[in-house]
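Cross-check.
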Amino acid sequence: MTRSRRATTLPMTELPAEFRAFHQLYRGVYVHWAELYLSNRADAEEAVDQAFEQLYLAWSDVLQHENPNAYAWTVVKHRTIDYARARGKRPTVVDTAAFETTALRDAADEIGALEESLHIYEAIRALPDRQHDTIVLRYCLGYTVSETADILGVTEAGVRSTVRYARHRLKVALDRTKGEDKR
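Predicted model, tokenized:
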């Protein structure tokens, strides 16, 4: 956690055990996601630390939620988005992921692969929030169905269902894009 935050004026050992465990389990995951979004490790850590401060200050309320993981994910996501807006940044998932794909590195037609990759990530960015988050965690960051379910605070069946709907939506969007490219 950030040194300038009130939540960190206490040593971690003086924080509630449940909070320490939650922090240990999820901080790395949240930073991983935020770094993809913000395209900068230090910014990602700052945004996630701000989210953890918010979670700490309301920890007893967080535990009262039906699904604390889902609530925490929402806090982290909103803090990251707010952090980006406050610094005039725009989401970079599309920008970075398009250039980091294995397909692009191994492609015979790098420009064609880049164009296809950009279409895919643009379509991902246009997905509804739950589908977007699930696809980014599963396919951009490589988490398993089980890990994704845990991070988002949903069931594994919920992740599989969301992936199925998202993939259908992506296929429709990409088919539409291919049709426009042929014109």
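DSSP finds ten helices and no strands in the chain. Residues 1-9, 94-99 have pLDDT under 50 and may be disordered. Passed to J.P. for a second look.
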